[in-house]
Amino acid sequence: MADTPRHLTLLVPGLSGPQSDRPVTDYFRERPLALDRLLTRSRHERMTVRGLDAVVCREFGIDSAAALPVAALTWLADCDDPLPRHLLRADPVHLRADQSCLRLFESHGVPLRADEAAQLVAAINAFNAPLGWQLSAPDPQRWYLALPQCPALITCAPQQAAGVDIDPFLPAGADAARWHATMNELQMLLHDHPVNAARAERGEPAINSLWFWGNGELPDVVQAPAAEICADLPLAQGLARHAGIRCAPVPESFARWQQGAAPLVVLDALEWPHHYSDVESWLEQFEQLDYHWLRPAATALRSGQLASITLDCCDGNRFYSDRWRQYAFWKVPGQFEDILA
């Protein structure tokens, strides 16, 4: 551990918890008192940048007002091949009919094997060969569509549409109608594919559509927030590669983090249970996060082992605290969920 106390920035999307009939914190076996006190005795900032992708890009100096180049950046994490000039993410998804709407479930809820991905990609490439498209799946859950020209599209990340009616989140822009038609054609192609027939026999959801998103121009230069970061998120890994810095895997605990040097850590295990309103998974992940990270980090801050902590919930809530703020005994700790609300 370094002799000089360090600053730690934690990006923790989904900390506010999933939607539930009852407050999710009613299910806690014990209150996370360290988190309650940490946030109560912090400077609370309201941020305009929201969403994990946008917040991570902001850390590298990319303005989220423009289309985030997620496809290009995650390509850098997933591939050693040269970056195609025009690129979209084309992720495999399951669309479920629910009364009067279609709901989206992506790879976090519908896992896909590499061999299944390869067969589906081959079928789609054969179908779209006259268009000059080239679909690839370097990761079974993250697919990429290289195009001969840049489409005029405004797209949304799949997590924005996770589990809800997809209509408000479909691609918009001058070329939207053509891409909506393409999505419909792909749904018909995938409906009878042998991969989906086999998945149905196993009781698994069909991969019955692609979600196009992540178009945006890759900036020539990005601003590295530090010489090293810790993240398992492909977007952060791609940003680090583009910035020429190291991106280490997230340590299993704060104690392990203290042995390294990265001041920025992305802890995203709560994000998908939050989006899908999966209370059980969220509670399980929160208990691990609290035990291994939040409690020991708060203790280190109070003891002076840490100089300060910034905790960004990626929902517009950002907190900063140091040792002296944590000893503001006159501030009676409130409940973290009320603070985030």
Helix-strand makeup class? alpha/beta
Largest sheet: 7 strands, mixed
Q: Into which percent range does the helicity of residues fall?
A: 25-40%
* Lateral arrangement of strands in the main beta sheet: 2-12-11-1-10-8-9
What is the average per-residue confidence, as pLDDT, rounded to a whole number?
A: 92
Shape: globular
Strand content: 15-25%
Describe this structure in words.
This protein has helices spanning 33-40, 52-59, 70-78, 114-127, 158-161, 176-191, 194-201, 234-243, 254-257, 271-275, 279-303, 323-326, 336-340; strands at 6-11, 43-46, 87-98, 101-105, 134-139, 142-146, 209-213, 228-230, 246-248, 264-266, 306-312, 317-322. The chain is an alpha/beta fold and 341 residues long. α1 (33-40) crosses α11 (279-303). The two termini are 36 Å apart.
Brief descriptors of the model:
five-stranded antiparallel β-sheet, alpha/beta, single chain, 13 helices, 35% helix, 341 residues
Please render the helix and strand layout as text.
Blueprint: E1 6-11, H1 33-40, E2 43-46, H2 52-59, H3 70-78, E3 87-98, E4 101-105, H4 114-127, E5 134-139, E6 142-146, H5 158-161, H6 176-191, H7 194-201, E7 209-213, E8 228-230, H8 234-243, E9 246-248, H9 254-257, E10 264-266, H10 271-275, H11 279-303, E11 306-312, E12 317-322, H12 323-326, H13 336-340
Parallel strand pairs: 1-10, 1-11, 8-9, 8-10
Antiparallel strand pairs: 2-12, 3-4, 3-6, 3-7, 5-6, 11-12
Helix pairs in contact: 1-11, 3-8
